[in-house]
Amino acid sequence: MHFHIITIFPSLFNSFLSESLIKKAINKGVLKITVHDLRKWTSDPHSTVDDRPFGGGSGMVMKVEPIYKAVNAIKTKNTKVVLFTPRGKRFTQNKAEQFSKEGNIIMICGRYEGVDARVEKYIADENISIGSYVLMGGEIPAMAVIESVSRLIPGVIGKDNFLETRVGKDGRFTEYQQYTRPEVFSPNKGVNWKVPKTLLSGDHKKIETWKNKKKKEVK
Ligand code: SAM
Description:
CATH superfamily of the largest domain: SPOUT methyltransferase, trefoil knot domain
Shape: elongated
Bound molecules: S-adenosylmethionine
CATH architecture of the largest domain: 3-Layer(aba) Sandwich
Order of helices and strands: EHHEEEHEHEHEHEEHH
Strand content: 15-25%
Number of strands: 9
Number of helices: 8
Structural class: alpha/beta
CATH topology of the largest domain: Alpha/beta knot
Helix content: 25-40%
Largest sheet: 5 strands, parallel
Radius of gyration: 22 Å
Strand order of the largest sheet: 2-1-6-5-7
Number of domains: 2
CATH class of the largest domain: Alpha Beta
């Protein structure tokens, strides 16, 4: 799987790519991630990537030409082109599963007041929103998509059973609560936060029943 990120802030990805499981997956060759500076595809002395919106309005809009050139230069035969926009379709676990089967994904990160709508219309295969809120740019969405898709790619995370999580009908994950040592944590004198007894019982049948019950509970 090869992710290509088109951004005007490539250095935002420095630590993201050099830590933890993403770094390991890159080193193992299971994952390839290339960060492209959009300004490389500008042709004026100021490397301009934005301009004022037609019809008026506040802020600046990212220009179509540099994005078109960047995508054309990067794209190969089997490449999915994704634009991040709060107007896009909501990103879900199902979408992550679909993306994990792609060979190459180009992700376009918007900034300012967004991206010229011709990118959404003519260049992107999918317009994706990671939630009904507005961020300052598409870089955090790109990281969210990379993490959720990568953990579905064999060899990226250690154990296959990490992949067991499933989405319930209400869109929430049916995951049970987890505990680790100590069995009792006392944040203050006389206050004891305990691990549920069942989990310490060693009775696998009871533990399984407890887990299934807890999957449905939320605070
Ligand atoms: N005026 C734009 C609008 O309301 O659609 C907001 C642009 S936002 C400040 C700048 C960029 O951040 C967007 O072009 C997009 O790439 C990214 N972005 C912001 N919120 C997002 C979200 N919820 N999902 C995906 N991308 C988002």
